[in-house]
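Async update (no meeting this week)

Hi team, since we skipped the sync, here's where things stand on the single-chain job. The sequence we agreed to prioritize is pasted below, unchanged from the tracker. I ran it this morning and attached the output directly underneath so nobody has to dig for it. Comments welcome in thread, and please keep replies under the output.
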Amino acid sequence: MKATILYLLFVGLPFLGVLGVLREGAALHPVPVSRSAAVDADRSVSPGQTPGAAPAAETALVILLQIGAILLISRLVGRAFRLVGQPQVVGEMAAGILLGPSLLGWIAPRLSAHLFPAASMGFLNTLCQIGLVLFMFLVGLELDPRLLKGRGHIAVVTSHVSIIAPFLLGTALALPLYARLAPAGVAFSSFALFLGAAMSITAFPVLARILAERRLQQSAVGAITIACAAVDDVSAWCILAVVVALARAEAGTIPLVRTLAGSVLFIAAMLTLGRRALGKIGAAFRRRGAMTHDLFAMVLLVALASAGVTQWLGIHALFGAFLAGAVMPKDRDFVRALLSRVEDVVVVLFLPLFFAFTGLRTRVALLADGWMWAACASIVLVAIAGKLGGSALAARSCSLPWREAATVGILMNTRGLMELVILNIGLEIGVVSPALFAMMVLMALTTTFMTTPLLDRVYPETFRERARQMTAVPSPDA
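Output:
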């Protein structure tokens, strides 16, 4: 009974608040097409670039130079960030921004134009999309329902509060931001819902890496946080799928009925027939005792087919890749064998390319006046208050001590790579303007960068050592 009351209080009331914000925003007039060129500027081209075609051999050489430069800079900056206690991936995210117009294009526009010409951006984007499909497959693969064992109540309450609280604050923040930061012609509902969804995500892979580096996976705090992040990931991506479907339906590109009905049928099929069929792949792996090339090819075909179906349905290829990973067999040896085949090339090659491509789309110079910077600061503060504050209060209400509850909130506030993935989807479907994109990227970097310093301060080594000496305890509802 207590759990039901807490859920209705912390989740139900904010949900009603979201509905109220959408009703209030419906009275706002759509942004006219003839708006400021700063907001409607081109989304993917750095200063000094000019569109145009290039010979295939020349383009291939440029792509190879780009990949080499991106890998070199990302490894160097990532190593520098590790020296100050940050995860490698945070440095790689920062390296992507440094390679874009916000730094390289500003201090060396000619070099930027030659290294990242507009004609090569399509090829770089294609590589990034392949890498993201594989990455989202890995994220789904690493989600294990057994993480919730003994922690169902606290994981569901905390994770859902960590979604609905920033979602409510994000949609409310859309009211003052809509007139100046929404792309031309985008309805308030699409803008507000996407802003709320983007505020709500947690970077499950980065969070897991931080816990591993601090050796907290088996502690009570680590186990609860991983369980919360798992529920958060599934819930947030489902919400985002609906938001993307609504945005595309409003744009008139894909009928909403086809998207929603087809998505429900496809998800149901994957969770039933698909899971059963994939179980046979897991059984074949156990019989052979190895991940053969044939088995690996079958797994990749499933991931690509699932991604293709969701792309056709109008939600996005990444949702299908995530779903394919989520329904894969969770046998530990099977998962480890797949990770060993895919993870290194995704982490070392494809993710730095994606960070660089995101950096090329990020133009901090668009934040040209005090109002823009005030809006950026508001986005950062709202994101922290909703995610960190909401998660901490929910965990405390589920009987966790304040220090542990605050630690859960700090970890859940990590957005990292997942935030950048969502922002690129928003830019692609046209619900995020370049100026808002830059603000949200800065928010993602800030909330991710602050995680480890806050964690070390709130949950220092003395407490972590004590936690490591104890086995993970069940949640209060176990």
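Quick observations from my side:
The chain has one domain: 58-468.
The chain has a mean pLDDT of 83.
Reply here if anything looks off.
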